[in-house]
Design a protein that fits this description.
five-stranded mixed β-sheet; Transcriptional regulator, ROK family protein; membrane
């Protein structure tokens, strides 16, 4: 199978944009500002970023030449020359995302503004290296059929979203330990570039989902928030000062590992990780014990039907754990909000959000600023869209060293 290759000139430009320097930083600032507002004229960009009109003009011309920006209709009705807004060109750049989940694989192609151009999904009982590579080989050419040859050269890379230390959760995932242990030594960059000749960026799956909310959602424009994604296992991400924070070892926002105080059967205080208290697999186990079918949980994230009392009990458990996570994180980072999303129906997500908001309000929050509890806007595909967004973030928004850690380990 032929590899997908990028245009060498575009690769050179992307590498230059990733380097340090005032010009590179200002390019990223301008692109980020335009993404935030949807469009903006040069005068507004210069004023908001504190740049000279000449500097903005030079950078805008360069970004236009690279097909990253489009001129929109002039804004008339004001004194003086009409202002010409500039917007991101959806076809200016593309990113491919590969999501490795504990129950499935996903390939996603998005454009520069986050529109999903194509996607492929495959369920599995548990993830194996062999099945992943076979899925990628089958899917990568199908994924890019929607792009002509010129647009294909604008694919900036492939982002990989994978659970942190996936091999440590064999029992919870119902997978043979020897199969998951293959991931310990698996080199994504080396193995994936044998199939697709693009830069590879690896990130924790829930951090990737957080990037999707930051870039393509977040209508309230929160600059500092804790992001939560409820899936087979619960996880999260952190945004500080409007930028995605991964941490020095890629673990920022790993709320699934947060020790939650609980009482054992003897009434003694002990701790249990949040991942074993507020994850989706807990609901699956509860339904199995109740003799109910669990196929709806994995087959659809849009509608689960009537799951009875088990669902209500699970929602309360999730809300209890997230209330604790909200209070702990607010005490440390003073977040403006906690944003909750997941591979769950919107109605279930909204019940969890409401339950957390109530529990936080009823908690002892003396000494803490108010933290809003809101729903995410991307939904069940946030991880897939987020990993496809990684190459776009690296090339056009955030510095590589600040964003992606090698192998996310």
């Amino acid at each position: 199978m032929a590899k997908i290759k990028t245009n060498s000139n575009r690769n050179s430009n992307s590498e230059g944009r990733g380097q340090s320097g005032l010009r590179a930083r200002n390019e990223r600032r301008i692109l980020a500002l335009i993404r935030k507002h949807g469009s903006a004229p040069k005068a507004e960009i210069a004023q908001e970023l504190g740049l000279s009109a000449q500097a903005v003009t030079v950078i805008i011309k360069s970004l236009e030449k690279e097909n990253l920006l489009l001129r929109k209709e002039p804004q008339r009705g004001r004194v003086g020359q009409p202002l010409v807004p500039f917007a991101l060109n959806p076809d200016g750049a593309f990113g491919i995302g590969l999501k490795v989940d504990r129950r499935s694989f996903d390939l996603t192609l998005i454009d520069f503004v986050g529109n999903v151009k194509a996607s492929l999904h495959e369920n599995c009982d548990y993830p194996s290296v062999t099945n992943l590579l076979a899925f990628l080989k089958r899917g990568v050419e199908m994924l890019t059929l929607s792009l002509n040859q010129e647009l294909t050269t604008r694919i900036t890379g492939i982002g990989v979203a994978t659970p942190y230390e996936i091999w440590n959760w064999a029992e919870e995932a119902g997978a043979p330990a020897d199969v998951l242990n293959e991931w310990k030594t698996f080199d994504f960059s080396e193995r994936l570039t044998d199939i697709i000749d693009l830069p590879v960026y690896v990130c924790n799956d829930d951090t990737a989902a957080c990037s999707a909310e930051l870039s393509f959602g977040n209508p309230n424009r929160f600059s500092n928030f804790l992001y939560v994604f409820i899936s087979t296992f619960i996880g999260g991400g952190v945004v500080l000062n409007g930028a995605l924070l991964t941490g020095t070892r890629g673990n920022a926002g790993a709320i699934g590992s947060l020790p939650l105080p609980t009482l054992n059967s003897q009434g003694k205080l002990e701790s249990q990780q949040l991942i074993m208290h507020s994850s989706l697999y807990i609901l699956e186990n509860m339904l199995t014990e109740a003799g109910r079918d669990t196929g709806g949980l994995t087959n659809s994230s849009d509608y689960w039907g009537d799951l009875g009392e088990s669902l209500e009990i699970w929602i309360d458990m999730v809300a209890e754990g997230l209330t604790y996570a909200t209070l702990c994180s607010s005490a440390i980072f003073d977040f403006e909000a906690i944003i909750i999303d997941g591979a769950i129906p919107i109605s279930v997500r909204d019940k969890i959000v409401n339950a957390v908001a109530i529990k936080v309000q009823e908690s002892d929050t003396r000494g803490l600023s108010h933290c809003q509890v809101v729903s995410g806007t991307i939904g069940s595909k946030a991880q897939s869209i987020g990993c496809a967004n990684l190459p776009l973030l690296v090339n056009f928004t955030q510095d590589l060293q600040q964003l992606v850690t090698p192998q996310a380990q």
